[in-house]
Amino acid sequence: MLSQESFLRIWSSVRRKHLFPELPLPELVEGAGKVAMEIKSKRMRMDISFCERMAGRLPEEEVVEALMDHGVAHHTCCPWDFSTYLKLYAQAKKVLRDPKMARRAVGYFTDVVADTYCVRRGDTKLPQLYRHMERGEVEETLVSLYQEIWGMDLGASGHGDVVRRLSRIPYLDRKKWEENVRRFARAIKPLLEEAEDEENPMGEHGPSDFSSEEIGQGLRMLASQGLDSFREIVQDLGEELLAAGGMGRGRGNPVDVDVLFYMKLAEGYALPVQKVPMEKSGSLYPYSHSPWEVGKPIKDLDIWTSFGKLLPGVSQIWERREGEVFGSSEGTPDCIVVIDSSGSMTDPRKRLSYAVLGAACAADAYLRNGAQVAVYNFSDALRGGMEVLPFSSERGAIYRTICRYFGGGTALDLRALESLRTDDPDIFLITDMQITNLRKVVDYLKGVRSRVTVVHIGENRHVQEFKERTEESGHISIYPVERQEDIPKIVLGKVREYLR
Amino acid sequence: MINPFEAFKEYKYRKRALPLDDIVASKAMVVNKLMEGYQHLLDEEVKELVWLARENTIMRAYALAEEWTRGIDYDVEDIEEFCFELDRIRKAPYRIAGPGGLYLSALCNNVKDEEVVLRIGDMEGRIHLLGYRLPKGKRLIVEGDLGDFAGIGLEGGELIVRGKVGNATGAGMKAGRILVEGDAGHRTGEWMMGGEIRVEGTIASIGQVGFGRIFERGRQVYPPITRPRRI
User: Fold this and answer.
1) What residue segments make up the domains of chain B, in order of their start?
2) A231: distance to nearest CA of chain B, Å?
3) pLDDT value at position A321?
4) Other C-beta atoms within 10 Å of A195: how many?
5) Which residue among A59, A105, B34, B107 has the highest number of C-beta atoms inside a 10 angstrom radius?
6) Statement: residue A232 has pLDDT above 60
7) Element (H, E) at A466
8) Eight-class DSSP state of B230
9) How distant is the alpha carbon of residue A413 from its chain centre?
10) Extended strands (E) in A21-118
11) Do A386 and A402 form a contact (C-beta atoms < 8 A)?
12) What spatial distance separates the first Cα and last Cα of chain B, rounded to whole Å?
């Protein structure tokens, strides 16, 4: 059994070898001995039984070092982050069409890249580990591949045709990974079908390898690629994503994939909200330092304590805290998001709805600024076609209400809307303006003391009428949205004159 | 003050050369040569982005394809990689399907191996005219769908398609066997002179067949089997 001291010494040397990656200290855990290691939220967990069993053929220190090299290379080389993992998975799925098989193929592919990266850098015990490891059908083929591409005798043989196909893939060419994983999946497919139940001795890889921040970032990237691919991949990896906390909802709370899509897409926009003077408000002030990590924004970087460098672990960023200030400081009021979900609007579950995306962006902007959001989703509201959510900070409930689609006629129930208004919150209305009681709505909006942001989807005579009738009202801002690219142009709560 | 870069002081980056680099470089060179050959074929055959699939143009393009691929040392994997290279290129005239299929046919017919397996199931485009003049003793297995004129002018080889095929499959084939695991399009077996076409799915329609046999889901549909009339 390896002493804690030796374990720490090996970890220290591996970290040094890989240029001090920001990774937590690995653990040695009791396991069944079949799988050498697993990675959970970036932490490597090495199986004691596996290491001890291997110790008969190889010094235990070398086994542990090789496993650490392997795990660290997944972090520093391939897949590097969850966004890359998702890209690779999407490509493998195109070839294999089966989620389980695609996950296995991506796992093996990232193993080959990470291990080849280590061998290329030299000074790794991975070849020794593979030479002495017990091998199943797939692993035997991969070790044969390693023999071929690393130029070492690792005592493997067989599957010459598969190895020939695999050995011509430029694994270390990062730009070609998406194409390469397809080639890899194509070549390895018959083997994966044959050895259906074979476990990857170097551990299965998936969303649980990554931190919840990385998963959130990956989902935002995936959402930007469209609803269909997002839906397909999230449904494939759903359970594990949920377990890893990437859904942002906590464990055991199933999430609607379409709602999650708009949530993640909206997070990528970060619309600005104009602040207003408040009686008592909080603003963010530099409070303390924390180490900068890859993926964190650099806008709060403190160059004085970072030695003028941008390096993970060395550079420092300001952590901001909200301070209680009385007087003339500014704050963000709460907001009522009013969204039209009548038949003339796009069904958000069938196609990307700019109205829902715009409303989701607005809700996200107010929530990020610490305000609360109420949602008034309407179709033929006078006949009950509406859903109202009182002021809340719970993202899930807010987005669910925004995504609700009625598909009927279009009329606003102004009494229901008025009942939501307390203390003059901002109003964000998104509609195509084909509202039956548009005149009443205009009169109502002209009369309120709130800041009103109106977003219209498309152009029609009703839009013209609305613009003409509200021209004189300084507290109403109007934005057109024809395409997705128009959404970032919205500035919430922008008013030409403050009423107060 | 502690210098945070102290630990890097003695660090030396070493990059070990691996056999992988040579393998990848040599294979990339072969695929580049194949692309060059295809470029020559397009330069000579595709004028003003137009190419018509007529008997004489097909024969001429194939002869040119054989000429341009002669002397290149390629294998089955190179052919498959070339298929995907072709699929990736979006611009004309590379997307004109006819010459591509004939060029691939020339590669398959002249490769050293007797059996050629092309796993092209995830290709976005469809290859037309693949299997042209596949000679006796050659077996071409395609995992994926093919376009029109699959196995045209087959000369005794065996074409197995693990997917569906377009129209005019086996057009003018002289001998050999075509097995389609999916469906086949219209005018299957047009001007067929011999050999056998077996379609495990459905055939949209049969063309004007001269000689040979066509089976649909195990049942012979050409020549139609007529039962002796009961007297």
Assistant:
1) 20-222
2) 20
3) 64
4) 16
5) A105
6) yes
7) helix A461-470
8) P
9) 37
10) 27-29, 37-40, 43-47
11) no
12) 113
Query: What are the tokens at A49?
Result: 């039984």
For residue A168, the distance in angstroms to the closest alpha carbon of chain B comes to: 5
**Residues B224, B216: Cα–Cα separation, whole Å:** 11
Give B15 to chain A, closest Cα distance, Å: 5
Single-letter amino acid, residue A35: V
d(CA B174, CA B211): 9
Nearest CA in chain A to B121: A95
Domains and CATH numbers, chain A: 4-207 (no CATH), 279-329 (no CATH), 332-489 (3.40.50.410)
Measured distance CA(A375)–CA(A389) in Å, rounded: 5
What pLDDT does A278 receive? 66
Over residues A76-85, the mean pLDDT reads 93
Nearest by CB: A151 against B11, B18, B81: B18
Token pair, residue B190, equals 């047009």
B-chain residues near A116 (CB < 8 A): 18, 20
Helix (H) or strand (E) holding A367: helix A354-368
Question: Are A182 and B122 a contacting pair at CB < 8 A?
Answer: yes
Which among B114, B101, B187, B191 has a CA at the least distance from the CA of B147?
B101
Are the Cβ atoms of A168 and B8 closer than 8 angstroms? no
Got the DSSP string for B54-114? -HHHHHHHHHHHHHHHTT----HHHHHHHHHHHHH--STTTT-HHHHHHHHHHHHHHSS-S
* Minimal Cβ distance to B77: which of A122, A150, A164: A164
Q: Nearest-CA neighbor of A266 among A386, A355, A199?
A: A355
Quick one: tokens of A191?
């083997």
Residues of A in contact with B11 (CB under 8 A): 16, 19
Nearest to A134 by CA among A39, A48, A205, A33: A33
Min distance A215 CA to chain B CA atoms (Å): 28
CB contact under 8 A, B24 and A169: yes
Encoded tokens for A314: 């060395």
Tokens of B207: 């063309």
Q: Is the peptide bond before B223 cis (omega within 30 degrees of 0)?
A: yes
What's the pLDDT tens digit per position in B218-229?
Answer: 999 999 887 666
Among chain A residues, the shortest Cα distance to B29 is held by A168
